[in-house]
Specification:
The chain is built from three helices and no strands. With 90 residues, the chain is mainly α.
């Protein structure tokens, strides 16, 4: 899901729809910020590959990308779990 050009709320709705669980505003902000980090890391990785950088530089950029994606996936799972718990307990 591409967050570029979307608001925090629009991006979050693509993940947890319109479920308004406790702490959602904070989660939306953290989720969107982490997605923007992942997008920036993806661009950086593509840039070093296109520049034919050394293997060490590419590995470093790939590591940064992987870390950003893991963080994004963790936050996504956190939001989905919170939304499901809230929906179950309504």
């Amino acid at each position: 899901m591409d967050a570029e050009g979307q608001t925090e709320r629009q991006y979050a709705e693509g993940i947890v729809h319109d479920i308004q669980f406790p702490g959602r505003d904070d989660w939306e902000h953290r989720m969107y910020a982490q997605q923007m980090k992942a997008v920036a890391a993806a661009h950086a990785l593509l840039d070093v590959i296109a520049a034919n950088a050394s293997d060490a530089v590419i590995r470093s950029a790939r590591r940064d990308f992987d870390i950003a994606i893991i963080g994004r996936n963790d936050l996504k799972a956190e939001g989905i779990a919170a939304a499901a718990k809230w929906a179950r307990n309504r």
